[in-house]
Amino acid sequence: MSRKKKPDDKEPTMPFGKHKGKTLAAVLAEEPSYLCWFMEKVEGCGEVKKAIAGLPGFREEWAKHYERKHRKEATTRQIVEETVRRMLGGEQLCPESLDDLCDRLFNPPQDAF
């Protein structure tokens, strides 16, 4: 005889949206970024958020999401500028000199190799 689940035993599901009715564990496996979005953007739903936070593996997904979202994307020019500034002891290059340096670095003469 199989044991019926009590309502308390029921796995939490997504209350709305494109994953409505799916278990939180299934959403985590299928599209973890959706749960990160839910945690960040949806107001209320405290019980669902508590369940999401308790899912095995969610903390790692949240850390990846946070890093992607809040990491500064440096352009190649910014990286070169910062490197040169360190090499020169904090001095700034004028924009024309930096342009010339970047041009030399990324467009070397063909006979240089």
Task: State the shape.
Answer: elongated
Q: What is the oligomer described by this structure? A: single chain
Number of strands: 0
Query: What summary fits the major beta sheet?
Result: none
> What proportion of the residues is helical, as a percent range?
40-55%
N-to-C series of helices and strands: HHHHHH
Percent of sequence in beta strands: under 5%
Question: How does this structure look, described?
Answer:
The protein is mainly alpha-helical. It has two domains: 9-70, no CATH class; 76-108. Helix content is 55%, strand content 0%. It has helices at 24-30, 32-41, 46-53, 58-70, 76-87, 95-106. Helix 1 (24-30) packs across helix 2 and helix 2 crosses helix 4. The longest helix has 13 residues, at 58-70. The chain is elongated.
Task: Describe, in short, the structure shown.
This protein is mostly helical and 113 residues long. The protein is built from 6 helices and no strands.
List strands and helices in order, with pairings.
Blueprint: H1 24-30, H2 32-41, H3 46-53, H4 58-70, H5 76-87, H6 95-106
Helix pairs in contact: 1-2, 2-4
Keywords:
113 residues, mainly alpha, 2 domains, 6 helices
